[in-house]
Amino acid sequence: MKIVATTTQSRPEPDCLFRYFLKDSGFDYIPRKGRGLKTIQHDSQADAVVVWQDSGPVMYIGDNKFFFHPSMAKVRLSAYRKKGQLDPLIEAAGVNPGDSILDCTLGLGADSIVLAYFCKGPVVALESSPAIAYTVKWGMRLYKSPLLWLSEAIQRVNVLAADHLCHLASLPDDCYDLVYFDPMFRRPLLKSETLSPVRLLGDLQPLSEEAVREACRVAKKRVLIKERAGSPEFERLGCHRTVGSIHNSIHFGIIDIEHEKGGGTHE
Ligand SMILES: C[S@@+](CC[C@H](N)C(=O)[O-])C[C@H]1O[C@@H](n2cnc3c(N)ncnc32)[C@H](O)[C@@H]1O
Fold first, then answer.
1. How remote is the CA of residue 190 from the centroid of ligand 1, in Å?
2. In the prediction, which pLDDT does 265 show?
3. 108 CA from centroid of ligand 1 (Å)
4. SS3 150
5. Fewer Cβ neighbours under 10 Å: the N or C end of the chain?
6. Can you give the pLDDT at residue 195?
7. CA-proximal residue: ligand 1, atom 27 (nearest)
8. Which atom of ligand 1 is nearest to 111's Cα?
9. Cα 134 to Cα 25: distance, rounded to the nearest angstrom
10. Which ligand 1 atom sits nearest the alpha carbon of residue 198?
């Protein structure tokens, strides 16, 4: 996918942060020269155009617009803060403060933010689609909220544009407490999701057994996989048990590593 980046009409010269973004992402810079985005896309034969705004990058692809916003993370964390409603991901993950976490599927970053809030430390989040990785990474960096608890959780997410199998293979044994996967469902849950930007821009490959094996080597406590309730993926990927409410169409598959590596079995 060819992605180019440009400025807004009102600020035609790239500022310092935009230059860092260009260097980090490797996206080609196209001077705006008063042109509309459709013209820039056509002239540069690009699939998508990123417009650098003060609030972060906004990606235009066809008639869709993609940018970072913590909406779902904010709703989930507010439900916990206001009503004590524990998030199903956090229950399934068994996160404790101080746990080290690797999220292998960043997407829009909602799960990473929720995990960062509860572990109270950094979460490393991997994303193999450069379009998503750099838009979310820089959107998170520039996101401003009057809610300190939200900003702090967002700033603890360290995004790496990387394929999770390659990254996991480069890591030593037992270096994260939790390794988490939320792969794209083979079929979207809702019809409306078919056209969601993450589906348009994301990596749709199924989660590989090799990636889960590597995750089990890298994790000290637990590997967690999100899937549709009743999905055959849980068995294919070797989950011992699944958790989730009967009222929820999404469940979590759990591989307990202490059990897997023989820890704690004293006979
Ligand atoms: C369903 S979304 C994750 C949503 C995320 N949990 C959230 O809260 O927004 C799956 C994401 O994983 C990414 N992905 C798929 N395969 C990957 C891989 N091999 N390495 C890294 N990221 C991958 C996709 O591009 C997509 O953005």
1. 17
2. 42
3. 8
4. helix
5. C
6. 55
7. 107
8. 8
9. 6
10. 27
Domain boundaries, the chain: 3-65, 71-260
| Alpha-carbon span 193 to 19, nearest angstrom | 33
Q: Which among 126, 104, 113 has a CA at the least distance from the CA of 154?
A: 113
Nearest by Cα to 242 from 258, 261, 223, 260: 223
**Residues 28-53: tens digit of each pLDDT:** 999 999 999 999 999 999 999 999 99
Homologous superfamily (CATH) of 71-260 is Vaccinia Virus protein VP39 (3.40.50.150)
Spatial separation of the C-alpha atoms in residues 222 and 218, rounded to whole Å? 10
- Structure token pair of residue 37: 């985005």
Name the closest-CA residue to atom 13, ligand 1: 105
Please name the amino acid found at residue 149. W
Distance 49 CA to ligand 1 centre (A): 21
Of the residues 89, 106, 160, which should be mutated to test ligand 1's pocket, given the most ligand atoms within 8 Å of the CB?
Answer: 106
For ligand 1, the distance from its centroid to the CA atom of residue 74, given in whole angstroms, is 19
The closest alpha carbon to 260, from 222, 206, 204, 203, belongs to 222
Residues 262, 27: Cα–Cα separation, whole Å: 46
Residues with CB under 6 A from ligand 1: 104-105, 107-111, 126-129, 132, 163-165, 182-184, 198, 202-203, 205
CA distance 68 to 155: 13
- Predicted local distance difference test score (pLDDT) of residue 206: 96
Mean pLDDT of 159-179: 98
Going by alpha carbons, the residue nearest to atom 3 of ligand 1 is 107
Per residue in 196-211, pLDDT (tens digit) is 788 889 999 999 999 9
Burial of residue 184 (number of CB atoms within 10 Å: 0-12, 13-18, 19+) = middle
